[in-house]
Design a protein that fits this description.
The complex is a heterodimer. Chain A is an alpha+beta fold. Among the domains of chain A are: 2-97, Alpha-Beta Plaits (2-Layer Sandwich), CATH 3.30.70; 139-226, Alpha-Beta Plaits (2-Layer Sandwich). Chain A has eleven helices and 19 strands. In chain A, the strands form eight sheets. Chain A has a five-stranded antiparallel sheet. In chain A, strands 4-5 form a two-stranded antiparallel sheet. In chain A, strands 8-15 form a two-stranded antiparallel sheet. Chain B has one domain (3-80): 2-Layer Sandwich (Alpha-Beta Plaits). Chain B contains four helices and four strands, in the order E-H-H-H-E-E-H-E. The two termini of chain B are 12 Å apart. Chain B is globular, with a radius of gyration of 12 Å. By secondary structure, chain B is of the alpha+beta class. The relative contact order of chain B is 0.35. The longest helix of chain B is centred in the first third of the chain and has 6 residues, at 23-28. Classes of the chains: A alpha+beta, B alpha+beta. Chain A binds chain B through residues 49-50, 52-53, 55-57, 59-61, 272, 274-278, 319-323, and chain B through 1-3, 21, 23-24, 26-27, 33, 61-66, 68-69, 77-80.
Chain lengths: 351, 85
């Protein structure tokens, strides 16, 4: 039996050969240096580098240091990591698929039946884990009207082309020659682009444009509701998703549901906080922000914390150089834990 | 190897940004919090002396990297050191 450690591009692999081959894998890019693995490790084999330094400065080393001489490859760190940065394989199979190992009960889902594909969750997701693909309806099917340019009356001024908000009018500009003394050879309206806003008609200095919006005059009688439907699909990358709750909170139609593994409380001492921003940069879930003053002389709270988005990992507490933040974990939801020592270890991350 | 605070006095321009932005310094010294170099007798992490940066009490450092971000010339860094102070 031999334990070996390999580090490649900051990713760590600790491997033990023997009757049963075990392999602990650490992915640096997913790690937030929150410190939970260090806290749960029963043999103090893991040391997490200073969270603030890892979040705010470029470092050549991995965010954690695993001592392969101490590591017993128990897999507790892989089971507690809320960021999927650690995994352990036994004989090539991840313990995350094994019933014998407890898993944090956490999930994030988007219901495509309810989703209106507004992309708010995609924009808000602090881990860039969401992709919303959508197919927009054809614009020409959502408007109806008529437009005609009287080319005899038109003086080729190009005002309508310049003003058209939909870029539907194209004039064929040219230099006049003695045999064709005009500044344009043609002017056309692309009826797939035109929205019948009538700006061109109003702007035309010689009234060469006749146009009418049929919806303004007669209502939506020839617009089919099915033509306005937006097709789409949502995708959450399970590896990147940390179940922070941003998608659920920002969704205007309650299509996203998030379940969190930890319950807790986060507080900070406004007197001690010096506003260095380290916690804001260290938080993987955008829980923290600095409020902007509404007007000069206005003094807002120093740090804004919204627990709706917090998963109580403790990265901010660990990052704060003046110990102004306190993260309290009061509950932890896992699948059944089968051993007493594991139960105790999971209890130990509460405080 | 552990990560610790390291200064490069030969690169330092003596601007004092790090001294003033350091949240530990400003918590310890009201003068530093007000943007002045300390004249009070409070122990702080680093000071500019004779125009160049000098580490005084790196044991107070919370390794947040605020000084690193404020330094225009990379004269103060958080990097791997033999022995974390």
């Amino acid at each position: 039996m031999e334990t070996t450690e390999t580090i490649e591009n900051k990713n760590i692999s600790v491997q033990r050969t023997g009757a049963e081959e075990r392999k602990l894998q650490f992915k640096d890019e997913l790690c937030t240096a929150c410190g939970l693995c260090e806290k749960i490790c029963p043999v103090s084999a893991i040391e997490v580098e200073p969270t603030g330094a890892m979040a705010t400065t470029e470092q050549e080393s991995s965010k954690v240091d695993i001592n392969e001489e101490k590591c017993v490859l128990c897999g507790m760190c892989a089971c507690i990591c809320p960021y999927n940065a650690l995994d352990m394989e036994i004989e090539g199979e991840s313990i995350k698929t094994m019933e014998a190992y407890p898993k944090l009960i956490k999930s994030a889902e988007i219901n495509d039946e309810t989703c209106i594909y507004c992309k708010a969750c995609e924009t808000a997701c602090p881990r860039d884990a969401i992709v919303i693909a959508r197919e927009l309806p054809e614009r020409s099917k959502l408007v109806t009207g008529e437009i005609e340019i009287d080319k005899e009356t038109c003086i080729d001024c190009g005002i309508c082309e310049e003003m058209c908000p939909a870029d539907a009018i194209t004039m064929e500009h040219k230099q006049p020659t003695s045999d064709s003394p005009t500044v344009s050879s043609d002017i056309n309206v692309d009826k797939d682009k035109c929205v019948y806003c009538l700006v061109c008609k109003k702007a035309c200095p010689v009234d060469a444009i006749t146009a009418v919006c049929r919806q303004c005059s007669y209502g939506e009688y020839d617009i089919k509701p099915e033509d306005a439907e937006i097709e789409g699909s949502s995708f959450i990358d399970d590896e990147l998703c940390v179940d922070c709750g941003w998608c659920q909170e920002i969704c205007p139609v309650d299509a996203a549901t998030v379940e969190k593994a930890f319950e807790g409380k986060i507080t900070y001492d406004q007197e001690t906080c010096q506003g260095c921003e380290t916690c804001v940069l260290a938080c993987p879930c955008n829980v923290l922000s600095f409020p902007q003053s509404a007007e000069s002389g206005d003094k807002p709270e120093k740090l804004h914390i919204d627990e709706k988005y917090c998963i109580y990992c403790g990265a901010c507490e660990k990052a704060c150089p003046v110990n102004a933040i306190n993260v309290e974990r009061t509950g932890i939801k896992t699948t059944p834990i089968k051993s007493k020592s594991w139960e105790k270890a999971f209890e130990s991350v509460k405080n | 190897m552990p990560i610790g605070l390291v200064v490069y006095p030969e690169l330092c321009h003596g601007c004092g940004n790090c001294v003033v932005t350091c949240p530990v310094n400003s918590l310890r010294s009201p003068e530093v919090a007000g943007g002045k170099g300390p004249t009070d007798e409070v122990d702080i992490i680093m000071m500019v002396e004779d125009g160049s940066i000098e580490l005084k009490h790196s044991e107070f450092c919370g390794k947040c990297g605020t000084c690193v971000r404020s330094c225009p010339v990379f004269a103060i860094r958080l990097e791997e050191v033999e022995e974390a102070k």
